[in-house]
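User: Show me an example of a complex going from sequences to structure tokens.

Assistant: Sure. Here are the input components:
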Amino acid sequence: MTASTTAIGAGLGEQSPGPGPAGTGDTAGRPPGPPRLLDALGTVRDPELDEPITALGFVASCALSAAGDAQVRLRLPTYFCAPNFAFLMVADAYDAVAALPGVRHAEIVLEDHFASDVINGGVAAHAGFAQSFDGEAVGELHELRADFLRKAVMAGTDQVCRPLIVAGTDPARLRGMVLGDVPGSRALDRLRQRRAELGLSAGDDAPLLIDPKTGAAISDDAVPLHLRRARTTRISIESNGSICRGMLAHRYDSPGPGTEDEEDQ
Amino acid sequence: MYEKNGEKYFIVDSHMHYWNAAPDNWVKGAEQYAKGWIECFHAYQSLGPPETHWSIEHFQKYSEDDLMKDVFEDGHVDVAIFQPTYLKEWYAEGFNTTERNAALGEKHPGKFIANTRFDPRDGDVGLKTLQANVERYGSKGLKLYTAEWNNGSRGYKLSDPACYRYLEAAQNLGIKNIHVHKGPTIWPLDKDAFDVSDVDHAATDFPDLNFIVEHVGLPRIEDFCFMATQEPNVYAGLSVVIGGLMFARPKFFAKVMGELLFWVGEDKMTFGSDYGIWEPKWQIEGFVDWDYPGEEFSDFPRLGVAGKKKILGLNAARLYGIEVPAEYQLKDDTGGAPAEQDDAKLVDEAAPVAGA
């Protein structure tokens, strides 16, 4: 860590600003230092868990030199986390950081992973997944990402619908509702965003219950099963996130910058 | 056996191990993988109660005496089923082989069942080894780890033609139970390695085999549930669910149990401690005491004493033909017989308990 570098780190030897980004008081004309770097990394999600890598504690440290060289270190709960999802997170982090104004060069390093070298080298060289894992992959990861966005839409459907049902809405009535009928919430924003990412309807007049594969509205008789599947999908994703957080906490002593606890426990 | 409130539970630990992951067993040049694997397992152990945590040194290589004490003496287990995992690219003698398990089993007649395994990428040689293992150890079950690395390959699917050839051979040798464990890699790497649709295909095409999906398809519980509800010969292995969630994340444990009871049902769920990851004692005692923590779970199916008896032992006993003394059997008025769904494929004769 040089004197001209501002940093946020989880490591013992690095500067630790404590909870929350440091130096947020003066934003006028400030360079894209770690707080903004952390904001950019907060737009990167674990595609499988559908949560920001910052909140999950996957950012070990991030720093930006006065000259505009960004350095980000990422970490995962295990040495053997699935390499395809790991690649997506490193590549997305690269894109998010490199797009920040004032960043001249971005280096994203995934630490302590069996495929670290291949992933780090591949992302740095803009090589894509199939070329990075030469002979071990037949295609890029768009389809994989879309599969997990559809799961996120299902989970988000439960997050939005469950409070409505608890508040007294007859589940059968959900079928006739559009997104504009639902009171605003973080969960609703998230559901709209995931649907939009998949190219599915997300405006006020769009049906609340849709098939995340086809975009078609769910038919009356299919509503109970759809809601049931939505709940199971949410529980699965959230339980996985919970296990991942537990494993990461065992593996690393300190929480990464931006780490948030899970909501349910 | 375990007794609580006058109820007697026959315990079958249907998923456990006797491994050596110490540095003396690491393959030269692959040390980082051997180390990474066992450290990952050790992190799972951290999700259990703190007083059950082991040092990494002890975790890498526990002794026969440790196992006998933890599983049988303290752990309430009546019969334990060894599930081998080879990983010979990283561990010179294998991580936890059929031979290593069976050698221990032979010293303790009546305590263990030794399952074996295959790797469909091993060709004709592998088929001969499978046959030899089944004949030598009397195996009625197999453990398949689909993410095993083998000679440059990072894994396989159950629906691969080569795997079907092995499943056919296994069936002809008298194998009934296929324990499936998904891992993070597979060929090709751009696909989701945890996807369980290949189990669905195999379960449909091999209706005379039972498929016990270990750790209930984690991290794809939803896909597993949607599949298991449609396939009569698919079972939920609870290893990792109890060990990883019951203590550390009780709310999620309740939700996952509720989902499994809804989609899969108590007749098709089997307890496995995943020892040495977790000791069985706290898992069994906690599970017998367990109930949903509060009102918000009121629309999940209940789990009573009879259901817990099935999950902790009677279901697996039936799948493996283990004789259960009358005092542990369900009384007529406590519900249906264990593992008695429409067409469970049961072993023709009791699985020879290793060394018996």
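The lines above are the inputs; the final block is the predicted structure for all two components together. DSSP finds eight helices and six strands in chain A.
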